[in-house]
Design brief:
Layout lengths: L2 E3 L11 E3 L14 E3 L24 E3 L10 E8 L8 E6 L4 E5 L9 E3 L11 E3 L8 E3 L1 E2 L6 E3 L7 E6 L3 E5 L5 E5 L3 E4 L15 H6 L55 E3 L1 H5 L2
């Protein structure tokens, strides 16, 4: 995928880049596979803000992507579509019974390609198999963590995981973060790399594009009053240098471990932090 550039006709256009939509072949989504995406603006069921800096944005329809393609499915790619809810492209496939599915579009996926799912299908890009049937060293995406739950790992644009080892019970998968994790060999994964790999190189260019995504501006704590933020206050000098970084509610944010779910730590062979130190 190439990056589309613009002539600097305005300050907002100077340096702005966007996605190249030339590979998009489907202009209209399947109505049965989309739902209206309601906006909650970062608020919970009590109306209280639980996630700051959210609100507004363009109205969206959610595409119901199938992350757990049933075994035995054999379908043909009918179209590559744009999904406003994720960085990756999605592919519309139609199986032999006439059923439609949305799946993540793998890098290089074209209209007319056959997609299969099952234990004995070919080791080909886009096909979905259990880890016990995939050769060691293969590049994967859309990896399950629990058998039958659906893909949870390596789903964003350009991301992939590697199958580095396997025994009779567990397979060792190296994730995009560098973490090496044990996953059950009964979990499924798709072969190949997620498409739209140039997504990370897009330059927003102007604030309005961020607002269209439903992201509101963020204000630094050091420019607030002392009553509004732990970093606030001061006499106009360099703010916050003598204070340890904290959230607006006083919790430490630098070097302070916030991971609460430790039940799955036993499956981590190599931490993503250890991978960064080397």
């Amino acid at each position: 995928m190439a990056i589309k550039t613009y002539n600097p006709t305005t300050p907002g256009r100077r340096g702005m880049t966007s996605q190249d939509m030339s590979q998009i072949t489907g202009k209209k989504s399947v109505k049965a596979l989309i739902t209206i995406k309601k906006k909650h603006s970062g608020r919970n069921n009590m109306g209280r803000i639980t996630t700051r800096h959210k609100g507004g944005g363009t109205r969206l329809f959610y595409r119901n992507v199938n992350f757990n393609l049933p075994a035995g499915t054999v379908g043909e790619v009918e179209a590559i579509e744009y999904d406003p809810n994720r960085s990756a492209r999605i592919a519309r496939i139609k199986d032999e019974q006439g059923q439609y599915y949305y799946i993540l579009a793998e890098q290089g996926m074209k209209v007319g390609r056959k997609i299969s799912s099952g234990d004995e299908v070919a080791i080909s890009n886009g096909n979905r198999l259990p880890l016990k049937s995939i050769p060691v060293g293969s590049v994967l995406h859309a990896v399950e963590l629990q058998p039958g739950k659906g893909a949870q790992l390596a789903r964003s644009a350009g991301s992939s995981a590697n199958l580095v080892a396997r025994d009779e019970v567990y397979a060792q998968v190296k994730l995009p973060s560098g973490e090496v994790r044990m996953v059950s060999v009964d979990c499924t994964a798709s072969i190949g790399v997620v498409g739209n790999e140039q997504h990370q190189n897009i330059k927003v260019g102007k604030a309005g594009r961020t607002r269209n995504k439903g992201i509101r501006p963020s204000v630094r704590g050091v420019v607030m009053n002392a009553a509004d933020h732990p970093h606030g206050g001061g006499d106009g000098g360099r703010h916050g240098t003598a204070k340890d970084p904290r959230t607006p509610w006083g919790q430490k944010t630098l070097g302070y471990k916030t991971r609460s779910r430790k039940k799955s730590n036993k499956y981590i062979i190599r931490s993503r932090h250890a991978a960064k130190r080397k």
